[in-house]
Structure formats: C-alpha cells, structure tokens
C-alpha cells in the first residue's frame, strides 16, 4: 500500500531505474529505500535485473501506474488512508464487539459528500473496486442486443464508461447523488464519451426513486442471480 501511495509503480512506468534514481524520484530517505525496493522485488511487485535496475512487473505496470486507464490503485490508496489503521484495534473489536471505525456511518457520509477533496479520493477508490468487474461485464454481456445502459449508483461512472468504450453503439449514463455529477462528467469526458454518457442526479432511497430499486432487482433477476421478491 505504501508503494502505491508513494507512486513507485507510476515512477517506473516511465522506464526502469536504478535504486538511487528511483529514490530521488520518490523523495525517499536513503536509510530504508533500497530495502523497501528489494522487498517489493521479493513480493513479485517489482523486477530487478543484474545491473540493479528496477522495473514494474507486468501486473503492477498495468494496474498500478496512475497514468494508465487500467489503474485500480485508488482502491489501495483508500485502504491505506481509511481502513488499514483499524486493524490495530482488532483486539478491542474482539473483546467488545464494537465497530472500530470511530465514526457514525450517516454522519461520516454526510461529511464526506460535503468535502470535494475527500469525495474525489473516495470515488477514485470506488473506481478501483469497480474497474476489473466493469471490464468483465463489458466483455461478457451480450451488449450487441442492447443500445443503452444506466448504472444505478454509478460514482465516477467506471461501469458505463467501460461498456461504452468497448461497444461504440452503446449510449446511456449513470444515476447517483447530485454531488457526484462533476466527478462523473470529468471522468467520462476524460475518455471522450461525454456525447454518449450523461449523469442523472437523484437519491434512490427516497420515495420518488424507489421504483429504480425495484427495476434493478427485476432486471438482475432475469440473469437468475437475484430475486425481485420483497422489492417495493
């Protein structure tokens, strides 16, 4: 997680580098840098040749270089910033049975959605979670039989973006809370899909949009994986 946060794989996306060069690029202290790089080699996250040059593995180059559309490191960044530290409280969680997040969920999300910087960080993490699944859905589902798609709970729009990138005839967009709109539109525009994908603001937990939840359950039930029973 520290390697992603520091940008190790992004730095090596520019090409192989020796330890001193990589250390300077990342702004690391000399004391632990070489051991850190070698630990990443031992974990098969980096490669090191006989001349001491480090390079990304094929997997980290594809998934953890921030400059690539295939980057899923936002998920790892979020784990490092918000989740990993809670493991230090595992003993207390086991003794008390109480959550160790330190915040009330509703108040936390209200604060999150009111802070543009934190919200941007959070939705990039959601894109990291979504991207591998979105690619699979884009390639496996018979989109040739359909012309539109709407992603309910879209965040940045990773799912409709991957589908639209893979299938030039598809148009549609995503539905989510209003604060997500500028983040969705920026993400979609970055993939040159603004003409085909648009954002639909709303809250599907409100009475006005409950039909969307029902429609989603019914739609998914056609695959045999979810049941619409009890919806509405």
Structure overview:
- With 232 residues, this protein is mainly alpha-helical.
- Among the domains are: 62 residues, Winged helix-like DNA-binding domain superfamily/Winged helix DNA-binding domain (Arc Repressor Mutant, subunit A); 91 residues, Rossmann fold (3-Layer(aba) Sandwich).
- The protein is 52% helix and 11% strand.
- The strands form two sheets. It has a three-stranded antiparallel beta sheet with strand order 1-3-2.
- It starts with a helix and ends in an 11-residue tail after the last helix.
- The C terminus is likely disordered.
SS elements, strand count: 6
What is the CATH homologous superfamily assignment of the domain at 131-221? Answer: Vaccinia Virus protein VP39
Q: Report the sheet with the most strands, covering strand number, pairing sense and barrel closure.
A: 3 strands, antiparallel
Overall radius of gyration? 21 Å
| Order of SSEs | HHEHHEEHHHHHEHEHEH
Question: Which shape, going by the Cα principal axes?
Answer: globular
- Percent helix: 40-55%
Name the strands of the widest sheet in spatial order: 1-3-2
Task: Give start-end ranges of low-pLDDT stretches.
Answer: 215-232
CATH class of the domain at 131-221: Alpha Beta
Please identify, by name, the CATH architecture of the domain at 131-221: 3-Layer(aba) Sandwich
Would you tell me the overall average pLDDT?
82
Distance between the termini: 41 Å
CATH fold call of the domain at 131-221: Rossmann fold
- Sheet-strand content, in percent, reads 5-15%
Summed up, the helix count is 12
Helix/strand-derived class?
mainly alpha
